[in-house]
Write a structure and sequence with these properties.
Layout (H helix, E strand, L loop, with lengths): L7 H11 L12 H5 L7 E5 L5 H8 L3 E6 L2 H14 L4 E4 L14 E5 L7 H14 L5 E7 L14 H7 L4 E11 L15 E10 L2
Parallel strand pairs: 1-2, 1-4, 2-3, 4-5
Antiparallel strand pairs: 5-7, 6-7
Bound molecules: S-adenosylmethionine.
Amino acid sequence: MHSSDSHPERSRFETYYSAPQAPWEIGRPQPAFVAAADSIRGRVLDVGCGTGELALWLAERGSAVTGVDFLERPLEVARGKARARGLAVNFLKMEAAAIGTLPERFDAVTDCGLFHVFDDGGRAAYVAALAQLLEPGARLFLLCFSTAEPGPQGPRRISAADLRAAFARGWQIESIEPAVFETVPGIPGAEFTPGGARALFAVIRRAG
Ligand SMILES: C[S@@+](CC[C@H](N)C(=O)[O-])C[C@H]1O[C@@H](n2cnc3c(N)ncnc32)[C@H](O)[C@@H]1O
């Protein structure tokens, strides 16, 4: 994982955001986060926030929210939505591996579709940054594609064992539940299980 503008994933996501609609742009928060809403409170960091639907929804519910993404384009869209909705969310351009350097403290981090983007090295760097950022007791709420989703399209598939391995030391897994990851229907190359790609929703607490 690199922090320079030559990040190989960056051009892939730039291509997604130059299309009329990216596959994950469903215009509302994913249902797994809506179901967990009462647990996601206080100061929240949304990592890989994209155009901000989850961050803005959490802010609307009373959380103090920061959203970070490594691309300026979706952040500009997110800032426009915040202005239009009269919501104050701090949208920052930042590499996920750098979040450990943020000066703010957070009660929760939300990750909707970022963890499953990383290769093994990127995943380790991301988990290390989360560990640097979060104090004991803070929680990570994470939605990723699961190994139950068939087919080769889309992001990496993640198993419960993958999550347990990634967060083996310094974390307590509170829950890992089957979930769905809704996508925009009809986008070529992004055809998943009708009703939502098979996914996992994990709640993971930073241990002392
Ligand atoms: C699958 S999209 C999900 C966007 C948003 N969370 C949502 O649910 O609509 C993944 C997002 O993570 C961002 N991203 C990917 N790799 C990143 C990285 N290394 N650091 C920061 N953001 C990253 C992409 O630009 C994209 O906006």
